[in-house]
Amino acid sequence: MSITPAGHVARSIARPNSETVRRTPLRTFLHTDDGVSIDSVYDPPAAVYDAAASSSVDLVFVMAHGFTGDVDKPHVRRVVEAFAQYGAVVSFSFRGHGASGGRSTVGDREVLDLAAAVTWARELGHARVATVGFSMGGSVVLRHAALYGPGRGGRTEASTDAVVSVSAPARWYYRGTAPMRKLHWLVTRPEGRLVGRYGFGTRIHHREWDPVPLSPAEAAARIAPTPLLIVHGDRDGYFPLDHPRMLAAAAGDHGDLWVEGGMGHAEHAATDGLLARIGDWAVSQAG
């Protein structure tokens, strides 16, 4: 299902800066370049920052949730509230999830959804963008960073300044754990897609990838010089530790790897302390 990477919203010619940053919440539908409506939410920083003392006023986190999540799920809102202590936050429901249109392609065309959200974040006045993705969203932020920006083919206004990938796979079609075998059944079987739709509120596309998109490990190798943080729990039941290690090896010297003791998988397993450390890392690294 791969197509040329793109995503769009109405564009502004205003230069993003601390004086143009929005100070109030906003919810709207964005539209990707392949015509899918994406339910999106903007949360301003939880505190009013003094621009002379902190550059966080210009920073926005764009959060990419995991498979079956959406902007209204409590575990997604908890992450948003944690990051709002460090800057503004744009969250959105991937295609096929929540109130967004379309059907999930489980990490392929979702890169268009993220590109539209990043562009919107810059339209709202933010000069610095950190993309943070969990599980499926973790693979999407890697591919997005590899595809967008100067010299990468995608539009500069859709590019990111720092990338955080949490609990992401390194390669496609992994079936080495029981949760992943169940997920493959959910995605590939008609009866599984019915469970996804009515049990999890996730509408899944029936077509297989053609061509197969760039793998997360291949993407990680193409992100430099954009700062990259890879986070993974040593008790992740979906993807064992060879996945983050493969991503880190592909990223080379420009990527940081945090292996978190006792952590499970994705948003549900991310402690408040870990989210705070990610926030600190993004503030220091995003330009």
Question: Could you characterize what this model shows?
Answer:
The protein is of the alpha/beta class. The chain is built from nine helices and eight strands. Strands 1-2-4-3-5-6-7-8 form an eight-stranded mixed β-sheet, sandwiched between helices. Helix 4 crosses helix 5 (190-199). The longest helix has 14 residues, at 110-123. It starts with 25 loop residues before the first strand and ends with a helix.
In a nutshell, what does this entry contain?
31% of the residues lie in helices and 17% in strands. It contains nine helices and eight strands.
What kind of oligomer do you see? single chain
Low-pLDDT residue spans: 1-18, 49-54
Total helical elements: 9
- Largest sheet composition: 8 strands, mixed
Fraction of residues in helices?
Answer: 25-40%
Terminus-to-terminus distance = 33 Å
Order of helices and strands: EEEHEHEHEHHHEHEHH
Strand arrangement in the largest pleated sheet: 1-2-4-3-5-6-7-8
Net shape: globular
Question: How much is the average pLDDT?
Answer: 90
Structural class: alpha/beta
Return Rg in Å: 17 Å
Strand content: 15-25%
Say how many strands there are.
8
